[in-house]
Every structure is written in C-alpha cells, then in structure tokens.
Design goal:
Blueprint lengths: L1 H5 L21 E4 L6 E6 L6 E12 L2 E9 L5 E6 L5 E5 L15 E9 L4 E8 L2 E6 L5 E3 L8 E3 L2 E3 L4 E7 L5 E6 L3 E6 L4 E7 L6 E9 L2 E7 L3 E6 L5 E3 L10 E8 L2 E7 L3 E6 L4 E7 L6 E2 L8 E3 L2 E7 L4 E5 L4 E6 L4 E6 L3 E5 L4 E6 L4 E7 L10 E6 L5 E5 L4 E6 L4 E7 L6 E8 L2 E7 L3 E5 L16 E5 L4 E9 L5 E7 L7 E6 L4 E6 L6 E7 L4 E7 L16 E5 L4 E6 L8 E6 L5 E5 L2 E6 L4 E6 L6 E6 L6 E5 L2 E6 L4 E6 L9 E4 L5 E5 L2 E6 L1
Antiparallel strand pairs: 1-2, 2-60, 3-4, 4-5, 5-6, 7-8, 8-9, 9-10, 11-12, 13-14, 14-15, 15-16, 17-18, 18-19, 19-20, 21-22, 22-23, 23-24, 25-27, 26-27, 27-28, 28-29, 30-31, 31-32, 32-33, 34-35, 35-36, 36-37, 38-39, 39-40, 40-41, 42-43, 43-44, 44-45, 46-47, 47-48, 48-49, 50-51, 51-52, 52-53, ...
Length: 694
Amino acid sequence: MMFARLVTFISLLILPFSANVPSQEQTRMIETTIPSIKLEKLCMPGRSPAQLNAQVIDDGRAPYGRVLIGTISANIGYLVDYDFETEKIRYNPTVPFRTSPDSENLSGSICIWGVAVYDDSTAFAAGTLNASMYRYDLTSHAFTRLDFPFQAKRFVKNELIEGESYIWQLHKATDGKLYGGTWPSAKLISLDPSTGVFEDHGQMAEGEMYLIGVNGEFPDRVYCGIGAHAQLVEYNTKTKTKRNLFGDRYKGREAFAQLKRVGDLLVALVYPQPVVLIIDPAKGEVLKEVLVPDQEDDFYRTNARSIVVRGDEIFFGMNPSNKLYKYNLRTEKLSLVGADLGGPIGLVGDRYLYLKTVTERYKIYDLEAKKIIKEVQLKIETDDGMIIFAMNFGPDGKVYGGSFINQHLWVYDPVMRKCKDLGVAINLGGQVNSMVPYNGKLYVGHYILATVSVYDPTKPWNPAPAADPNPRILGSVGDEQDRIHDMVVGSDGKIYMGTYPAKGRRGGTLTILDPETEEMEVHRNIILLQSIRSLASSRDGIIYAGGDKHIGLGNIGEEERDARVIGWDVRQKKVVHDFVPIPGARIVWKISEGRDGMLYGSADSAFFIYDPKSKTVVYHDDPGWGSLLHLVASQKDGRVYGIAKKGVFMFDPETKQFTRLVAMEAEGWTDYIIENVQGDLYLGIREWLYRLHR
C-alpha cells in the first residue's frame, strides 16, 4: 500500500465549486430614469477566488497531508480544506462582508489571509477587510467566528477606520497564545485559545502601518516584521517591552516577512528583490545576507510559511521563475533544487516538500528521490465572484478585464454573449490593474512591482512556465513602483502608464513604453510627491495625468494639499499643462477628452471641465452621489457617462445637467465605464459586467 503511494505520478485536477453557479448567458435588463436608456446586467466574469496563504497539515499519512488555503472573493472569504490523498475539498465561508450591496454597516470578511494550525485538532483563520478571526475544528470541520474586539468600527469614503482592517498572519507562540499582526496600525494582537481572551499589545513601530511577519518560536519573545519601511522588532511578552533590532538599516526595503526559527537563529526574508537574512536575535546581529541569484523579482509573499527548514537546510522559492532554492546553514552554500517548482508551504514526513505556484498548481516533491510525485491544478470557482479590477477593449473588439488579487484575465465576447475566465496571466502575486490595446496585442499593467505583460489574443492562451508564454512579461517599471493604475496610447505610438510607488514610498511615475523595443522611459515625480491615478490621450498629442495624494497603499501625503492634473506634450517631451481641478481634492479619479476637445474629469466627489485652450477649469460641481469613480466622454453623443459611489450617471455639457440613471452602490476601488469606436458602453461595477444601451 505504502509502496503504491510512492510510485511517481502526476495528477492534474480541476475542482470547480458550487453546482449553483448561474449561467453566463443569463442577462437582466435594468430600467433607468430615462426610458430610452437601459442597463443590461451581462455576467460575472471572474469566479475564481485568489488562493492566498496555504498551510500544510502533517497527520501521519506521508507522503500525503492536508492543505488549508485562505481565499478572497467579492464578499466572502473561504477557508478551503483540501486532502491530497482523497482529493476531497471542503469550503468554509466567512460571515459576508456586507449584508446588502449598499451596506456600510460591515461585519464579515472578503478574505482569509492569516492561517495557522494550532494543534492536532484545531486551526485558526484571520479575515479581512474588516479584521475578524475564526476557529476551525480539523475533525468536525466546524468553522466558528470569534468575537474579535479590535476590528474597524466605521466605513467612510471607502476606508475602514477606528480599528484594524487586516490581520496578515497568525502564529502560535511558546506561551500557547496565538499572535497576529495588523493593518493599518501595525499592532501585535493575541488570542489565548484556552480562555478566549484577546489582547492588544500596541503598535510595534511608530508611524508604520504594516505588521506582516510574526514569529513566536523563542521563549517570551515575539518577532515582528514591519512595513512599509522594513524593520524587525522584538517584543518581550513578559516585560511588554520592544526592541528594534536593526534600526533604520533596512528601511529602504518594504518589509520583513517569512520569519522562521532554526536552532538559536532566526531566518527572515526582506523584500523587494529579496535577501535571505541569517540573524542572531540574542545579539541583534545579521550573521549573513544570502543574495538570490540573478536578483529575481519576488518570493511567495502571500504565504506566511514560505521558508521550510529540514535539518541544516533552508528551502525557499522565487517567482516569476518558480525556482526552488536551498541554503545550507552549516556549509553556507546556496544551491538550486530545480526550476518550475514553486514556493515551499510545508513538509510532510520530513521528506515530502509541498510546493505552491501563483498559477494555482500544488506539488509534492520527494526530497530523497528528487522528483515530483504529485501535481494538482487546483482551480476553484464560487458563485460569489471576484471584483473587477481592470477593463478595456481588446484589439479584437472583445471586452477584456482583470480580477482583484488573483492575476486572472477574463474576456467577454459581445457576439457570442459569453464571458470566459482565461486564468492566471503571470506568475506574480497581485492583480491586473490596467490594460490597453495596441497593434493587435493587449498590454497589461500588473501589481506587484509595476510589472508589464503583453497578450496576443490571436495565439493560444499559454502562460508561463511555457517556453513561449502568452501572456509574456516585458519587465518592471522599477524605481520603487508597485502599481500601474492606467494605460493609454499616445499619438506617437508609445504606451503611457501611470504608476503608484510601493508602500510608504513617495512619487509615482509617468512611464513611456516603446512597444517596438519594449524599453521603458521613466519620469518620476512628474506630479511632485503624488501617484498617478488616471490618464487621457488627446488628439493634439497631450497625455493628461491625474494625481493621487496616496503614497503607496493606505498612506496619504498631507504636504501636497491638492491632487493635480498635468499635461505632457509627447513631441516636446515636457509638461505644458499643470492645474488643480478641485481645491482640496485628494484624488483625480478619471479624465477623458470629449469630442469638443474639452477635458472632462472627476476629483473626489466633484465633476470638472478643463479648457486646454484657455488653460482654465471652466466648470465644476458636486452632484451629491459620493466619489465619482470613473467616467468617459462619449464620442458618439457628446455626453459624459460615469459611475459614482451611489449610482450610474449622465452629464450633458450643453445644459450642464446631471442625471442619475440608476441608483446603485459601486465598489469604489476600481469601477470602470468604457466606450468603443461603435459607441458601445460597458461598465464594470463590483463583480458584474454591464452594458448601457442608448
């Protein structure tokens, strides 16, 4: 029996969830306040929740074990329990994030991020966006929500405030308590499972927002990996005192993560462009910095246990290459275990290394036989859906988009009236943030590391690790950038990208990609100390860029009082317009050139019109529907159509009249409305794709 289990085999398994997934062909026509205009609800294009933190359970059945996987969807997080031997899968949903689509009275979670196996019978899971915690019985599969006292109390302007929103990790410490790190206060919190008592140990680093890495394997001490300016803090659980081990030494990096005890030493990864640190925590010294060959872009940061230790050997994986490395503490030798393996998530029977890739593949690697003995393509689908995070027309006229945090691309065929989820586009954590068609191809901007890829719809979908991948990564913007929120094609045939810096950094970029040479020209701080949220390409060769006072995720720069708009002349290669559309506004959501040559835009909850000839804002108003999240100036009828926090609207430039067509709640993160050359309008609101019929 055991010998049969050890026979090498590859198993490819597709596991869809829910027999109740609605048909993609089911549409619904929604009446608007104008009888001649209808809003058609087309489909939910993304149904595959992102597979985040995975933890392995070794229950004595080597080489097989169970894997607990935290996922994220539009309104519910799932703790997925998958058995590698029986191939059975169980779904444990959190309390819904919202009780209704327009609810700002929030209680549950859209995501399970922190996962920790506590003992042979119990595991715990931590939910976000509204921080919460759950207990999972490994035998009965009971999934119970706990009364977490530190979650955010209010939801204002799309932000959770007065409390904690994220719990990044959970880790069992030597005192028997479960410790976790939070955002936005970088607090260390704990739960005593024996009493059910939670404790807030306070912010671990002044002025910081992220407590990402947690390790409690040393007596009376919990080590805390801090971001957005990387620091390592030691917290003494008896004296309640803190010690910053390295001060500002690594503050140029983003965060410490993947903290793991090996003997009396602590191993950590600091990113981006990861370095493995071997640390003597008692002395507060870095004994060795292990540099990753070729300085690869990233490691498996979504997983809390991506360092696996076996004796003197430390295993860790890199992406996008999927290379697996091991470092021997005794010989101080770094070696490549193999390519296209992935990142380690656990060890079973002290021999079988469990691996995971961003592209939803799970593998069992036999360290003795040096080969894969099982591989599972674990595709999960739910009827909850994924938030639409990018959208544009492709070169083939179809509607393309990307889903939140799972790097999936999807496509809607308006002729066949069908949505299709294409799958994971690139082997990096994060999501698709923007896209633009050019010369028969679709250029895509990704978070993380402000990465650009190109997809050719005329060729088969064939993502990495294919030898000739489609989509194919072109590279990263670099210069501390992390997100590409908008892309347009200029009159010079170049692709212009607006970016956000990494967490805690200042100054986005206007980056120019030459699609012929695939080289990038980076202009940072073109709007001083602001990120670039929105772009518009005008007929007279101006690229307009709208700013955002956010500096990286969740940090707002107060030195700059107003979000600005600049106009970049593609011929002169310089700024020729620079103005504040709405005094006091913190973000320019969207800008669009009308057929009359005017620039229409939104900043916070206000609408504005800018005259490029007089270089003045000639009109502005606040219609009272909350943030004006996206808009397009129609080339078909001259009107402006948009999505506000509280509905879909239309603006008539001649009469200066606003009309709310449909009262509905938008997500407020990345809602979209786009128009093609035929004048067809498509909208992405939350997890649904719509078409506006005029």
